[in-house]
Structures are given as structure tokens and as C-alpha cells.
UniProtKB/TrEMBL annotation:
Residues 47-110 form the HTH merR-type domain. Gene3D superfamilies: 1.10.1660.10. The lineage of its organism: Bacteria, Bacillati, Actinomycetota, Actinomycetes, Propionibacteriales. SMART domains: HTH_MERR. PROSITE patterns: HTH_MERR_2 (PS50937). Keywords: DNA-binding. GO terms for molecular function: DNA binding; DNA-binding transcription factor activity. Pfam families: MerR_1. This is Transcriptional regulator, MerR family. The keyword Transport does not apply.
Amino acid sequence: MVSGNGDRSLDAEPAHLPHDEQGLLFDDELSPLPNDAGYRGPTACNAAGITYRQLDYWARTGLVEPTVRGATGSGTQRLYSFRDILLLKVIKRLLDAGISLQQIRTAVHHLRERGTDDLTRVTLMSDGASVYECTSNDEVIDLLQGGQGVFGIAIGGVWREIEGSLAELPSEKAVEQGQAAELSDDELAVRRRQRLTG
């Protein structure tokens, strides 16, 4: 990724700043990441503001694959985690700003490698052609003074938006693949299986 004025491109190592150095753009007083819930495709689409066609394409091409449960065949439902939906929303915002899918793939790859705590301290800035990572107010100001930044996405702000959206939408408990099959069986399928196994 292109970077100017000493700003960190998305390929650079993340800076680890002390908590008290974070300012208004980098307020990370967020609730913990929910890790026991999965969200079906339509719910993920609703929360991220994307179409199901986009979601399906991005899953098939590996841009954002469901981490709770992938589709394993006909009739199985993909389940997306909170973090997956957060990435979907960021992708949507970058697309709306005119960023190329190639640049978005690079940004998503970088964000995927970050820890969740680090992620809340990131603001993505873009000039419409490149995406820059900023982890402090000073980096945002430097980028804007250099005339490069056109818009920014504070990941912590997107986090809060997703939390608010998902609070009103249905979720499912994350279960193991074998347990999911047992839970989805109807009574006839259970009797048939018992008869076959003796």
C-alpha cells in the first residue's frame, strides 16, 4: 500500500500505544467481543448494510468467510461472528467511498491479522485510491495536513453501530458441527438413525 508523510500503510507493523494516549477518534471503551453467538446471512446483511448477493460473493471469494460456521452443504446456514460483521460493514464503507476491491482485500487482510483490542484503536483513512491506517489523533492530523486523507472510518465507531444493530436482531448460539446436525434433526431422522445403529 502507498503511504506518505510517514503515515503507516496497512502493510506496516501495528503501533502499540498506551491506553491514555487515545483520543476522541480512538475511544476504545467498548463492550467485550461476543464470541458465543453467530448470525445468519440475512442478519449479517441487515447489520452491515449489504445485499445477500454481496455477502455470498465475498464468502465464495474468501474476502470475508463466516468464522462461526461455514456452509457445509445444501440446507446448512452460514453463521457470521461479530468480528465478521464488523469487517463487512468496513468493506461496505470503503466500497461506498470508491475504494477498489483490490485495495479493500489488502485492508481486510491486514485487519484480520490484528487482535481485537488493537482493532478498536484503528481509524482507516483514504484518499479514494489508497487506504491508510492511523492509530493516533496525530497520525490523522498529519495525514489531513498532507492533503491525502479524504475520509476516515473509526473502527471503534463501527463497532458501536454493529452492537446497536445486532442487539435488535436474532442470533444463534455457536455449536459444534456434530451438535448442529443433532439439533436440526427431526424426530423421524432420529428414529431412523437409532434403528440403523441398533
